[in-house]
C-alpha cells in the first residue's frame, strides 16, 4: 500500500505551525488527507500542492488536531478551494451541557456557555459552516476512532472534556472542582520564557532535558495519530504534551502499536519544545539511548523558516542520543514515502546536528 506524506513549512518570524498533506493507496483508489492547515496564509500553498503533486481537488479526510490558529487557520482555504469528504474536529460548543458543571454554573446556562464557546473559536465555527455547505461529513476524533489509515491514540472524550474548560479562550472554570476531579493541569501558569538567557554544556552522556514540562490545555487536547501503513509505523503528535503522550502510549501499547525502535516515522511534538517531551517518554516512543544515528526512524520537526526558538537544542540532542536524526521543515517540504518513485526536486533532508551548548532552565 504505497503512500507519501508531506510536512509543510509554516510560519513567519519566530512563529511556527503544523500542516501535513498525504496521499495513500487503499487497495482500490488513491486517497488524500490533510492533517492541520497551518495559518490562514498557509492554506493556498497546501491547495496548490494537492493539485500540482497529487493531481486532485478532492480531499477525503481533513483532521484538525486542536483549535490553535497555527494549525486550524489554513483549513478554511482547504474548504474554500477543495471538496472534502469528511472533517474530523473537536467542537467545543457541542459539549456545553457536558461541561457546564465545571464552571461556576450559577453564572451560566447551557445556551449561554455554548454561545461563549462559539464566539471564542470563530475558526472552528467557520470551518463547520463551510463543511456543512458542501455536505462534508463531520466527526469528532476521540481515542479509538479510525481515520483513513490512522487510529486516534489520544485524547479520550473524558480527557478532552476535562481540558476544555482550561483552554485560554474559554470562560473562567471552577478550578477547585477540576483539581478535585484530577483534570487540572498543575503548574499551567508557569511557562518557560521564550528568551534564553543562559546555556549549559551537554555531551553524549550528560542530558539536561527535564521530566516535568508543562504545556497549554489546548496542546494536551491534540489529536495524536498512529498508523501501520505499508508495514511502517507512523506517529503524528501535533502539539501534544506529556499527558497526551502518556495517554497515547498506554492505548497504543495495549493495541500492539510498535513504539520504540520499531517506529518508522515520528513527528516531534510542538515544534521541538522542551515542555512537550521528556527523556522517559522518548525512551518509550523511539527507544533508549544508543549510538548516534543508528535507528532508521525518520524524525520530523515542524518549525517556521525564521523561527530561531524552535526546535530547542536540548530536544535535538535528546533525539540524537537515542539514535534518531531529526530534520526540520525550516527550509522546505519534508517528504516521507514508501512504494513511491522519487519526486523531482526532493532529496534527502539534512538532519540537525548534536551540539554541546543547550538552553538552560531558569
Features:
alpha/beta, Metallo-beta-lactamase, Chain A, seven-stranded mixed β-sheet, 12 helices, 21% strand, globular
DSSP, total strands: 16
How many structural units, i.e. domains?
A: 1
Q: What is the rounded distance between the termini?
A: 48 Å
Under CATH, the topology is which? Metallo-beta-lactamase, Chain A
Order of helices and strands: EEEHEHHEHHHEEEHHEHEEHEHEHEEE
By secondary-structure content and strand pairing, the structural class works out as alpha/beta
Uncertain residue segments: 188-194
**Overall average pLDDT:** 92
Helix content: 25-40%
Q: What proportion strand?
A: 15-25%
CATH superfamily: Ribonuclease Z/Hydroxyacylglutathione hydrolase-like
Main-sheet strand order equals: 6-5-4-3-2-1-15
CATH A-level architecture = 4-Layer Sandwich
Instruction: Please state the overall shape, judged from the principal axes of the Cα atoms.
Output: globular
The helix count comes to 12
- Rg (C-alpha, Å): 20 Å
CATH class, please? Alpha Beta
